[in-house]
């Protein structure tokens, strides 16, 4: 089975190769189509991924997989949530950490969703999450924006630091969504 995965994010591609391809034997083709894949403004990553997967599947006429990740901080009433990428583009890591410097409540939740959709169908959505805290400084080299300051509960290192040492272990902290979609796809054949 080859699967069209709609992303140009090298970290998401690596995660998909480690889990979907290497662990479950699902070949993926990371695609950046010649049209814009719209990301709606929504309250959850599941809504964003589902809309984008359906739009692309209908436009390409092929089954597609799309993922979305959100970081929900208690201190900011759930922001940035599904606007994670916008925070990264607009203010970046250092400015973000400076902005929340004096905050005592550092609790956060990382949500990772995958949406699979066939043309003309409703998307099937898989969600995973992990809880943790936000550090006061960026640490590590491996990953996306939030990986440099998100420490999963029970760990002392950021996701970036964990990924520096063991990318497979790092993928565990994004929840079970990628494993759930892989198992579901394998059952379907």
Number of helices in the DSSP assignment? 7
Structure classification = alpha/beta
The share of residues in helices is: 25-40%
Q: Determine the strand fraction and express it as a percent band.
A: 15-25%
Question: N- to C-terminal separation?
Answer: 8 Å
**Strand-and-helix sequence, N→C?**
EHEHEEHHEEEHHH
What's this entry about, in short?
With 189 residues, the chain is of the alpha/beta class. Helix content is 37%, strand content 25%.
Question: Could you explain the architecture of this structure?
Answer:
The protein is built from seven helices and seven strands; from the N terminus they run βαβαββααβββααα. With 189 residues, the chain is of the alpha/beta class.
What labels describe this entry?
globular; 37% helix; 7 helices; alpha/beta; 189 residues
Write the layout of secondary structure elements.
Blueprint: E1 2-6, H1 10-23, E2 27-31, H2 45-60, E3 64-73, E4 80-81, H3 84-90, H4 92-99, E5 107-117, E6 124-134, E7 150-152, H5 159-165, H6 167-172, H7 177-188
């Amino acid at each position: 089975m080859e699967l069209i995965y709609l992303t140009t994010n090298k970290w998401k591609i690596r995660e998909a190769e480690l889990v979907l391809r290497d662990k479950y034997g699902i070949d993926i083709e990371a695609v950046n189509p010649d049209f814009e894949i719209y990301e709606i403004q929504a309250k959850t990553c599941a809504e964003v991924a589902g809309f984008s997967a359906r739009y692309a599947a209908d436009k390409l006429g092929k089954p597609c997989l799309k993922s979305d990740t959100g970081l929900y901080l208690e201190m900011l009433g759930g922001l940035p949530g599904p606007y994670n990428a916008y925070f990264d583009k607009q203010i970046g890591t250092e400015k973000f950490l400076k902005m929340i410097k004096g905050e005592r409540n550092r609790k956060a939740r990382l949500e990772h969703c995958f949406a699979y959709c066939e043309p003309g169908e409703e998307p099937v959505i898989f969600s995973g999450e992990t809880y943790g805290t936000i550090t006061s400084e960026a640490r590590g080299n491996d990953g996306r924006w939030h990986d440099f300051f998100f420490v999963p509960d029970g760990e002392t290192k950021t996701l970036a630091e964990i990924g520096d040492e063991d990318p497979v272990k790092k993928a565990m902290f994004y929840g079970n969504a990628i494993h759930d979609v892989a198992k579901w796809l394998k059952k379907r054949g």
